[in-house]
Specification:
By secondary structure, the protein is an alpha+beta fold. It has 2 helices and 2 strands; from the N terminus they run ααββ. It has helices at residues 2-17, 61-72; strands at residues 78-86, 92-99. A two-stranded antiparallel ribbon has the order 1-2.
Length: 117
């Protein structure tokens, strides 16, 4: 029996010399890049169709007046309005306003002209 114990001790010692394989759970943290996402929301300011694309029968005098004041920076109403469309080789729609009075600086030569909007 002593011999068996010695052999068992030798085997254990031999086992100590060999490297032991152990399972190790290594949780590697993944390096992720932080990306900032820019979201732009646009608010529709003018939900109406443009005045000149609409049917002239559907437009009221108040709408024409408000449009004339906005486009011309005039404080008075217009004298007359003509809303028409032309079709042919060239096709276009037009609104023509006639103001009640001429601008006070109409004949001033050094006046800086305003471009049509």
């Amino acid at each position: 029996e002593a011999e068996k114990k010695e052999e068992a001790e030798k085997k254990e010692e031999d086992d100590d010399d060999e490297p032991k394989v152990e399972e190790v759970d290594e949780k590697k943290e993944k390096k992720t890049k932080k990306v900032k996402e820019v979201v732009k929301e646009f608010e529709v300011l003018n939900k109406n169709k443009p005045l000149w694309t609409r049917d002239p029968k559907d437009i009221s005098k108040d709408e024409y007046g408000a449009f004339y004041k906005a486009i011309s920076n005039d404080w008075e109403e217009h004298a007359a309005v003509k809303h028409f469309s032309v079709e042919g080789q060239l096709e276009f729609r037009c609104i023509l306003f006639a103001p009640k009075r001429a601008p006070f600086d109409m004949f001033e030569p050094n006046k800086k002209r305003n471009n049509i909007k």
